[in-house]
From TrEMBL, chains A, B:
The gene is purS. Pfam families: PurS. This is Phosphoribosylformylglycinamidine synthase subunit PurS. It is found in: Cytoplasm. The keyword Cell inner membrane does not apply. GO terms for biological process: 'de novo' IMP biosynthetic process. Keywords: ATP-binding, Cytoplasm, Ligase, Nucleotide-binding, Purine biosynthesis.
């Protein structure tokens, strides 16, 4: 079965409260500041039919209204 | 600022209920079956000091007891 990795990110312009929380926490924990922190999801799976992955993302894994996704299939 | 991507996954052997739910949902939605579905997190950020990323993961972004992480820093 081909192995696939799907990176799901909040779309540009969509507020990412988890990312904001991380950005604010870093200096409080004594770390250097960070910018543009975005928290998304990582889905890894072995699929029988990799051509279905886009439909699987649209219907099940991602919310296309507020999230972008990137599909990487191992050769 | 260097751009970094952090992939956070449930450790092998740790139950991943979200992954199980996706695995069960796929045939019900008419898709081919998938195996070894694991749901993790994706953190992308621009950091002032990339050498801090491992400590940031250990202290803030990941739970080292149940999660593994992989740090990718863009050149």
């Amino acid at each position: 079965m081909p192995h696939a990795r799907i990176l799901i990110r909040p779309k540009a312009g969509i507020l990412d409260p988890q990312g904001v929380a991380v950005e604010q926490a870093l200096p409080q924990l004594g770390f250097q500041p960070a910018e543009n922190v975005r928290i998304g999801r990582l889905v890894e799976l072995d699929v029988a039919d990799a051509t279905e992955l886009e439909a699987i993302c649209d219907k099940l894994l991602a919310n296309p209204l507020i999230e972008d996704y990137e599909i990487q299939v191992d050769a």
